[in-house]
Amino acid sequence: MWRTLPFCLDQSLRGYHHLFDPGLVRRSFVEPLEVDPDVVAGASTLFEELRTEGDLSTQRTRIRSAPDSAQRLFVRLYFDYLDGWVARTRPTLH
User: Which of 29, 46, 61, 84 is in the most buried spot, having the most CB atoms within 10 Å?
Assistant: First the structure.
């Protein structure tokens, strides 16, 4: 995943989220999500599994095979990370 992470982050800033289907992104922010220990464990497992995958297609397949709640939490965490990354790496215009 680390080989594709810079690519995905760069593309995400342009509005292209290669890891996720648009429907999943929408559902992740529109539908309520109950976060319990099982959901957190599922998202954590998903993250760890994606770290070992270097191929974007394989990563997308793995995300789609995870439980829906783990997928949606992962998407929310991804966008939270993206927002923080932008804040840390882009100059603030004053």
Answer: 46
With beta carbons less than 8 A apart as the criterion, state whether 57 and 21 touch.
no
10 Å Cβ neighbour count for 69? 18
Residues near 49 by beta carbon (within 8 Å), at least 6 away in sequence: 62
Please give, one letter per residue, the 3-state secondary structure of the chain: CCCCHHHHHHHHHCCCCCCCCHHHHHHHHHCCCCCCHHHHHHHHHHHHHHHCCCCHHHHHHHHHHCCHHHHHHHHHHHHHHHHHHHHHHCCCCC
Please report, for residues 6, 9, 83, 90, 92, the alpha-carbon distance to residue 86 in angstroms, rounded to integers and kept in the order given.
12, 9, 5, 6, 10
Q: What pTM did the predictor assign?
A: 0.81
